[in-house]
Design brief:
Number of helices: 13
Order of helices and strands: EHEHEHEHEHEHEEEHHEHEHEHEEHH
CATH topology of the largest domain: Rossmann fold
CATH class of the largest domain: Alpha Beta
CATH architecture of the largest domain: 3-Layer(aba) Sandwich
Oligomer: single chain
Distance between the termini: 17 Å
């Protein structure tokens, strides 16, 4: 028999596609299952997989049954209506409820729905202190980092050969990624335009090469092609590999030399923590609080990013190898099940 508090339903997107939240849910599911939890996932990904029920195809009866089978419902949903609805149904059915806020970029009414979901919860998790303050200063701050497993460390052979070829030319390999090519405040959310401008500089190209990977092209195929054309037009395609691939980005971080996280908004970046976990330099915009060990540059300031990158010849600090933040989550589960 599963111990009390060890039956958990995770609600949120599960890879594919791969992004910070989807990878967090996958690792949390795998870790909980290994620890003896009876764990299930209600997948909200647009790609339906056979391993878990998907919100797109599930019947209302099956949805209610999933909630009733769980003692703890842990909602990671980013859609405000979905977040509130899952929270309301979980409480209506007498489940213990945990809500994680990974980020927020919504309107006033969407903020109200998030606040309502938080008010219904037995515990709320914020992935950084700034988010907690924005939502009233109450709740636990638990970064969404669970250590990568060894089976996540591989990357496609063609990409590895490209990296090795650039490294043989004496270049340092920078890596960056985007879940999708979204925009925020009128600019590339992931700072792709800043990185292209950075590599337009021949001084940067002489010392560095960059791999930028987009996990999903859903809804952004046209923009992806325009960026490809710009990279070729600027003549930087020999040093700037721009690719769409659902890869294990932790594997690319390990294969590279330095991570660049040039977002103009963020939650708690999984890639920054993974870079530091692997002992790699992590250059990150200062749009949010970053972990100790990361080197910050001014958000959307290409000159400041260039200064920090050109001073980067080796590891800038190694992440302290704590046991990640899994224990903090399971402790919270135990508290609300007592």
């Amino acid at each position: 028999m599963t111990p009390r508090g060890h039956n958990v339903l995770l609600i949120g997107p599960y890879p594919e596609p791969k992004g910070g939240v989807t990878i967090h849910i996958k690792r949390l599911y795998q870790a909980l299952s290994t620890m003896g939890y009876a764990c299930n996932v209600l997948d909200e990904s647009p790609i339906v997989k056979p391993i878990f029920p998907n919100l797109k195809t599930i019947t209302p009866t099956k949805y209610i049954r999933l909630l009733l089978q769980a003692e703890i419902v842990h909602v990671h949903t980013s859609n405000p209506i979905g977040k509130f609805a899952h929270a309301a149904f979980a409480r209506l059915l007498g489940r213990r409820l945990v809500v994680t806020i990974h980020s927020f970029r919504g309107t006033a009414w969407e903020w109200a729905l998030y606040r309502s979901a938080c008010a219904l919860s037995h515990r709320v998790i914020f992935v950084n202190p700034r988010l907690r303050e924005r939502f009233g200063g109450k709740g636990a701050v638990i970064p969404a980092f669970i250590r990568p497993s060894r089976d996540e460390e591989g990357i496609p052979e063609a990409m590895l050969r490209w990296i090795e070829a650039r490294r043989s030319e004496g270049r340092i390999i920078a890596v960056s990624n985007a879940f999708q090519l979204n925009r925020f405040d009128g600019a590339d959310l992931y700072g792709l335009d800043n990185l292209i401008e950075l590599f337009d500089d021949p001084v940067v190209r002489a010392r560095f090469a960059c791999v930028f990977v987009v996990s999903s092209l859903r809804g952004c195929e046209s923009y992806f092609r325009k960026v490809q054309q710009r990279i070729r037009r600027d003549g930087i395609d020999a040093e700037f590999l721009f690719d769409a691939a659902s890869i294990n980005f932790s594997g690319l971080i390990k294969a590279g030399d330095v991570l660049i996280r040039a977002t103009n908004t963020d939650g708690d970046s999984l890639s920054v923590r993974e870079a530091l976990w692997f002992g790699k330099p992590a250059l990150a915009s200062d749009c949010v609080d970053r972990p100790e060990g990361a080197t910050l540059f001014k958000t959307r300031d290409v000159l400041d990013l260039k200064r920090k990158l050109l001073s980067c010849d080796g590891p800038i600090g190694t992440y302290r190898r704590m046991s990640d933040f899994l224990d903090a989550v399971t402790t919270l589960y135990t508290e609300i099940s007592a």
